[in-house]
Amino acid sequence: MNNYALIVIIVAYLAVLFFIAFLAEKKKKSKWVNNPYVYTLSLAVYCSAWTYYGSVGIAANSGIDFLPIYLGPVIAAPLWILVLRKVIRISNQNKISSIADFISLRYGNNRFLGALVTLICLFGTIPYISLQLKAVSETFEIIADGTSYVSTTILDDSTFYVALLLAIFATFFGTQNTDASEKHTGIITAVAFESILKLAFFLIIGMYITFYLFDGTTDIYSQVAEMDDFKELTSLSGLEDGFNWFFMIALSFMAIFLLPRQFQVSVLENNREKYLKKAIWLFPLYLLLFNVFVIFIAWAGKIKLGNSANAEYYSLLLPLENGNSFLATLVFLGGFSAVISMVVVSTLALSIMVSNNLIIPYGFLDKFKKSHTERNEKYIKNIRRISIFSITITAYFFYVSFSKQLSLYSIGLISFVVIAQLAPCFFIGLFWNRGSSKGAIVGIITGFCIIVYTLLLPFAFTAFTGSDNFTQYGLYGIAALKPYALFGIDFLSPPAHAFFWSIFFNLLSYLVFSIVSKGNYRERNYAEMFVDSVNFTALQDSALIWKGEAYVADIKNVLVRFLGEKKATRALNIFFTKYKLPQDTQLADARLVNFSEKLLTGSIGSASAKILIASVVKEEEISLVEVLRILEESKENIVSNNILLEKSVELSQLSSQLKDVNQELIDKDKQKDEFLDTVAHELKTPITGIRAATELLMDDEDDMPKEIKKQFLTNILQDSDRLGRLINNILDFEKLETGRLSLEFQYLDIQETIKKAVANTQHIAAKKGIALSIKNKHRFKINYDEDRILQVLTNLISNAIKFCEPETGHIEIEYQLENAILEIAVTDNGKGVAQEDMEYLFDKFYQSKHQNTIKPAGSGLGLAITKQIIEKHHGKIWVDKTLKSGARFVFTLPIS
């Protein structure tokens, strides 16, 4: 492909990324850019050019040794809930803007420690950035197909312009705000988009090579198995390789937490802690998918291209070898995506560290004190912009001077080993409050010096002198000081060897100096906060131990220089409102001092914030005993507050429950009164009728015609029957309610019982011209109390008759056996049941809301008794809500 066409593709691709990042910045609050999937995909910035190309190279040359770099993060992912969540919580509480700020704050805002961590990150990351530029340069030359030429100056080198474009991208979207703790939504969304592309393109090339150039994985395996070095490529050679694997897994485990770019995306760009639940399984899945075809691409390259080509670029060379330039371009863009993500996020993270922990605290603080808000904001942004460009250009020159002589894999491992020196003070400091700044500083310096001796010097001496005497014989010819076999340990690979000895002496120094030297009161204070961060969350502003004299006006003047008058005033008003302090408060306390430091931390770093606030307050030294006493009181107060809060919640819940129960009793009492009124009325009605008819018969016994006398006697009989039924219903209901009603179960045919119920109600139905029918003709024998089930059926059929229209009414009784349950239904085509009454028809004291206008014929106890009888049989009864016209009452009886 013509190199100018390739440049056009690169520029167009960068323009697409700019557009995506721009849209994301405009819609920061949209769920499309704030979700666990974008967060998880941003974590895939871990998969840089080293993953895209270097893994294939190491797989081709060393077999399965590429795996440990990915096993470490997979092992680390489940621990994110414990470790990373704690780190995110602390960072959010204290407006942390970088890993240097985080470690510096843990050890009492130690300025030198923050600067040291920044330098370690620079030494560890700049070679890594140069690795990315090396990958871009070499892949550009491969895909340009001989149309590119060797550059003799910077201005002729396309890699330089790529680095410049990446620096512009990071500058534009990374320095919008002076507060570096603000989320960089545009960059993170672009990184997530690139993570999708690089994975998709890598999978496409993997499938192309495996299933198009070869006949699947079996074909590749069978061909590579014939090679002489096949056994070495597919197995570990004893215990020595096992140790190498162990140390490489440990190295990558630490890197996933400590790499500046990983800390940036996993901690500082996290919007919600709950995103971790998705990330702990989705991120390992992403790594798994990325590595599915690595070994097959490596083997395919060895088969097709042999050792003549650079194994790291087999994924690019194989499609070109077969004339597929389009697929090769996709692979190039996938690798370019991996480069962009790594370089942009890394330079952003490093620029914040350089700004907040090197340049500002060691050179610009005095200038900030004298300048006004707008100028300070301009200074901060310009410092970060210059830092981004300086870091990128430095990485470019490292690439030009050194990277061409090293593989992607070796450069990546050097960076990992350097960054791993932060591990003891980072991880142990989270869970051990005795860890001191002196221990952290001595440990990091010791570990780094050992890396220089065991890893960097051998390479430098060989590169500049052309001799490997230093490597072969050690310093002054002392065998125990051989850089690759220190103290006789000669079976580890150089990176694993350097990692083992550096971490060993780093950890030893950290522990020894932390035990023998006690940190100052401020250091111990933050140590307690970090270790016990969960309990201190509620009192984070008051947890700082501070004693001295400070004035609100002086602190406000400092805040105004960086935040502006409006933001500073609003922040102080929020603080005074939160702690219920008068707005005209003049003397500042520990809470305000801590609160002010946090406000400044995002803009200038925790160390500089501490220095600036300290410059306007008169602080008194506090003894360690006093620190411990105050901290203990704080803990006791927190425990007491938690207990009181729990009691308050319990009382509130109990009060709510009592209120509900009281309301329920009132409602039931009201229902019971209404029910008793109804029952009394129902009892009075037949008694009044009986009394009136009897009086008439007594007064006009001789003169009354026989027909009228017979009618009165019939009325007396009907009212007596009604009165008897009502009394029986009340007695039945009372027995059922109190559990005194015993059932007499018999093994009977349900069809016969249904026929009896129909016979009992047939004459009533016939009078209204209503048809009664039994749909099912099958016979089922089950255990039940026939009298009571007959009572249920009679009640349901009588109700159906009552609400059916004369002459056109039809009632159907059906039953069926299903899942060891007999289901019986009474269906009519009457006026149906009102929707609002369906839920309450079987309630014992429920009265229809139409009670006052439409007086029902009956006591209203029938359905309540019916429900009780069915439940005594361990069955259920309900109204079918799906019926559009008429009513359908269904009840069940268990077979057993």
Overview of this structure, please?
The chain has 4 domains: 3-433, Sodium/glucose cotransporter (Up-down Bundle), CATH 1.20.1730; 538-622, no CATH class; 636-736, Orthogonal Bundle (Helix Hairpins); 742-894, Histidine kinase-like ATPase, C-terminal domain (Heat Shock Protein 90). Helices cover 68% and strands 5% of the residues. The chain has 34 helices and 9 strands. The chain is mainly α and 896 residues long. A hairpin with a 2-residue loop joins strand 6 and strand 7.
Which characteristics define this entry?
single chain, 896 residues, mainly alpha, Sodium/glucose cotransporter, Helix Hairpins, 5-stranded mixed sheet, two-stranded antiparallel ribbon, 34 helices, 9 strands, 68% helix
Number of helices: 34
**Which CATH class of the largest domain?**
Mainly Alpha
Identify the strand order in the major beta sheet: 4-6-7-9-8
The domain tally reads 4
Query: Gyration radius, to the nearest Å?
Result: 42 Å
**Describe the biggest sheet?**
5 strands, mixed
Beta-strand share of residues: 5-15%
Mean pLDDT: 81
Structural class: mainly alpha
Helix amount, in percent? 55-70%
Q: Distance between termini? A: 82 Å
Q: Which fold name fills CATH's third level, the topology of the largest domain?
A: Sodium/glucose cotransporter
Please report the total strand number as a whole number. Answer: 9
CATH architecture heading of the largest domain: Up-down Bundle
Q: Tell me, what's the shape? A: elongated
What low-confidence regions span 5 or more consecutive residues with pLDDT below 50? 849-857
